[in-house]
Amino acid sequence: MAPVPAGDQLTDAQRTRLDEAIRAAERHSRVEFSVFIGTAAGDPRSFATQLHNSLVAPARSILVLVDPTVRALEIVTGGWVRRTLTDKEVELAALHMQQAFGEDDLVGGLVRGIHMLADHARPAQTLHAPDA
């Protein structure tokens, strides 16, 4: 899924890099990713939750909201996603994103965080023993 509107702060090359990261994460994890970069209407957490709930398949989705004006980062995960992605794993990805944001690398932080979320959201593959 293409990101939710990213505002004017990204170059075409940055948008392409972000789109490629999202597509790779979706293939890897079978979870839908959306990114919103811009000003949240009201409380960033509430706004992120509203955006997430408006997605086509919110249960199988992760939404990352970045509001640079108030320095907010919100990550909202759906119920199906939470079966494999823990709050601690989301917090770890958020910390890595915030570190990159602090170094003025918005897209790099998003790409790294999306990859981390996808790695952890990926359902474990089970191996079945042959019937005896």
TrEMBL record:
InterPro entries: DUF5130. Pfam families: DUF5130 (PF17174). Gene3D superfamilies: 3.10.310.50. This is DUF5130 family protein.
